[in-house]
Design a protein that fits this description.
By secondary structure, this protein is an alpha/beta fold. It has a single domain, classed as Alpha/Beta hydrolase fold, catalytic domain (Rossmann fold, 3-Layer(aba) Sandwich), CATH 3.40.50.1820. Helix content is 29%, strand content 17%. The protein contains 14 helices and 15 strands. It has a 6-stranded parallel sheet with strand order 7-1-8-9-12-15, with helices on both faces. One 2-acetamido-2-deoxy-beta-D-glucopyranose binds next to loops.
Length: 447
C-alpha cells in the first residue's frame, strides 16, 4: 500500500515535468516511440452487421430487413442512422450455441441471415466514434501521431468482437490471436525492428494478456516491449450481473440499462467473462450484486441468481466456461503497468421491487467507491493478482499508478496518463532485452 501512496504522490510531482511535446518532423527520432497496438474497452470496437430477409424476430416490431442492410454498431452509435431498435440489433448479434465437445469457437454460429465482421481492422477507423466524431482515444492517438507513429502501420487498433470472451472467436474469418500476431510483426518491421507496446482500456487489456499467454517466450522477446492497462478488468465487475436481468444500452448518453436486451446479453460469452469472479470476490468482498423483493444475492450466489431469473442449463454452462477464464495468473513475460481510478461513487449492483426475472426495470442501485465503473475490489485485486504473478517472474516488473477521482471513461484524456504513457513508450536505445532490470517501469518513472 505504501508503495502506491508513494507512486500517487510521485505522479503529482511529475505532472509539471511531463510536458507532452509536439515533436517537429525530422526531430522525432530522438524521442521515437515504440509501435503500439490498442485494445479498446467493451463495445468500443465497431461491429459491422449485414442483415437480410432470412433473419426475422417476429416478437420485436419491425425487426426484419426486406433488402440486405449494412450498418455499424458500437458504444455511442447514433440511433437515428440505424433503421432497427437496439433490442432488435442485440437480437441479430445473438450467437447460436451448439452443445458439443468440439473446440469452443466451433460451437457458435450467427443468426440466419446475419453476418457480423470487424471493419477497418487494425486502423483507428475501427473505433466507434460518438455522433460528434470523437473517440475516447483521440488525445492519445494525436500524441502518438505527433511522435511519428503512423495509422495502420506502427499505430494499430486491435478491434475485437466484444460479444466474445478472450478465449473464444465468434467471427471465424477474423480470429483474435492470428490477427494480433500479424499486426505486431508488421508494426515491428515497419519501425525497423522496434518492439511493440500493447495498451488497452478496461476489458481490452484482458484480450491483450490472453494473446501474450498464447505466444512463446522467444517470440515475445523479439516483438513485444510491454503491456499498459488502463483499468484492466481481470477480476470482473459486480455490475455485469445486472445485465442478465436489466440488459444494457450502448447509446451515447450513458452506458445504462435496457431490459429489452437482457436475454441477448446472456448469449454473449463476454457478459460471463467480465462479471465479478467469485474466486476473487471472497469473504468481505463477496458483495451484494442484486437485491429483489424476496432476497439478496451476493457474487457467490451468481448461479442461483441465473436460475431464479429463469435461465437454464446453457447459461450455467456458459458461466463455467467463461467466468474467470482469463486472469493474470500466468505472467505474460513483459513489463506491465496498470492505471486505476479511485474514490468515485460506483454502481456494483441493482435493486428490484419484484423477484428476479429476465427483462426487469431496476428500481435502485447498490454502490461502493471505485472509478465510477469498476469498484474498489477490481483495483485492489487486480494489483494483488499482478503482484503475485510478477513475483514468480525473473526480471519483468509490474507497476501501477493510482488516479484519485478519475472517472473510468476519462482516463485516456488525462494529462498524467498521457504523459506517463508516452514516457513508458519512448524507445530507450541502450536497453537490449524486454525485461532487463534497467527497463523496469518503476525505474523509468523514477528517472
Ligand atoms: C442472407 O444471408 C445469409 C447468411 O449471411 C446468406 O447465406 C444468404 O444467401 C442471404 N440471402 C440473401 C437473399 O441475400
Ligand atoms: C463529443 O460528445 C461527447 C459525448 O456527448 C462529449 O463528452 C464530448 O465533449 C464531445 N466532444 C466534442 C469535441 O464536441
Ligand atoms: C528505417 O530504415 C529505412 C532504411 O534504412 C529508413 O529509410 C527509415 O527512415 C527507417 N525508419 C525508421 C522509423 O527509423
Ligand atoms: C451439454 O453437454 C454436456 C455433456 O454432454 C451436458 O453436461 C450439458 O448439460 C449440456 N448443456 C446443455 C446446455 O444442454
Ligand atoms: C491500492 C489502492 O489504491 N486501492 C484503492 C482502490 O479503490 C478504492 C476506492 O476507490 C480506494 O479506497 C483504494 O485505496
Amino acid at each position: 500500500m505504501a508503495r502506491f501512496e508513494h507512486l500517487a504522490v510521485f505522479v503529482t510531482a511529475l505532472l509539471g515535468l511531463l510536458q507532452v511535446q509536439q515533436v517537429a518532423a525530422g526531430a522525432w527520432k530522438d524521442s521515437m516511440l515504440h509501435p503500439v497496438i490498442i485494445f479498446p474497452g467493451f463495445s468500443y470496437s465497431r461491429l459491422r452487421i449485414t442483415v437480410n430477409a432470412t433473419f426475422a424476430a417476429p416478437d420485436i416490431p419491425d425487426c426484419r430487413a426486406s433488402t440486405p442492410t449494412t450498418f455499424d454498431f458500437f458504444y455511442g452509435f447514433d440511433p437515428a442512422t440505424i433503421p432497427f431498435s437496439e433490442e432488435c440489433i442485440f437480437r441479430m448479434l445473438e450467437p447460436i450455441y451448439t452443445n458439443s465437445s468440439g473446440a469452443l469457437s466451433n460451437r457458435f454460429s450467427p443468426q440466419p441471415g446475419v453476418q457480423v465482421s470487424l471493419p477497418y481492422h487494425g486502423t483507428t477507423l475501427c473505433l466507434g466514434a460518438l455522433p460528434n466524431g470523437t473517440t475516447e482515444w483521440d488525445s492519445l492517438i494525436s500524441q502518438f501521431k505527433a511522435r511519428g507513429l503512423r495509422d495502420g502501420e506502427t499505430l494499430r487498433v486491435a478491434c475485437y468482437d466484444w460479444r466474445a470472451s478472450p478465449n473464444v472467436d465468434l467471427i471465424p474469418d477474423q480470429p483474435l490471436i492470428p490477427l494480433v500476431k500479424s499486426m505486431i510483426e508488421d508494426a515491428y518491421e515497419k519501425q525497423n525492428g522496434t518492439r511493440v507496446f500493447l495498451i488497452g482500456h478496461s476489458n481490452g487489456p484482458v484480450y491483450a494478456q490472453h494473446f501474450l499467454n498464447q505466444m512463446d517466450t522467444a517470440w515475445k522477446e523479439k516483438y513485444v516491449q510491454g503491456l499498459i492497462a488502463y483499468a484492466g478488468n481481470w477480476p470482473g465487475q459486480g455490475y455485469f450481473y445486472s445485465y442478465f436481468l436489466a440488459g444494457l444500452t450502448i447509446q451515447p448518453e450513458y452506458m445504462g440499462l435496457n431490459p429489452a436486451t437482457a436475454r441477448s446479453m446472456a448469449t454473449f460469452p463476454s457478459t460471463y467473462s467480465f462479471a465479478a469472479n467469485p474466486a476473487i470476490f471472497t469473504d468481505e468482498n463477496d458483495i451484494e450484486i442484486v437485491r429483489t423483493s424476496v432476497r439478496s444475492y451476493r457474487v457467490s450466489d451468481a448461479k442461483q441468481l441465473l436460475i431464479d431469473a429463469g435461465y437454464g442449463t446453457k447459461e450455467l454452462e456458459f458461466y463455467d466456461l467463461f467466468n474467470g477464464a482469463v486472469t493474470p495468473n500466468e505472467w505474460p513475460g513483459v513489463n506491465v503497468h496498470e492505471f486505476f481510478g479511485t474514490n468515485l461513487k460506483t454502481e456494483v449492483g441493482t435493486v428490484y421491487s419484484v423477484p428476479a426475472s429476465i427483462g426487469l426495470e431496476s428500481s435502485g442501485s447498490l454502490t461502493r467507491l471505485g472509478d465510477m465503473n469498476q469498484e474498489d475490489i477490481v483495483n485492489d485485486s487486480t494489483l494483488e493478482l499482478w503482484q503475485k504473478a510478477a513475483a514468480k517472474a525473473e526480471n519483468c516488473r509490474f507497476s501501477a499508478t493510482e488516479l484519485d477521482r478519475v472517472n473510468h471513461f476519462q482516463y485516456l484524456s488525462q494529462r498524467t496518463v498521457i504523459g506517463i504513457t508516452v514516457r513508458l513508450m519512448t524507445v530507450k536505445r541502450d536497453v537490449e532485452s524486454v525485461c532487463e532490470p534497467g527497463d523496469d517501469f518503476n525505474a523509468l518513472l523514477d528517472q
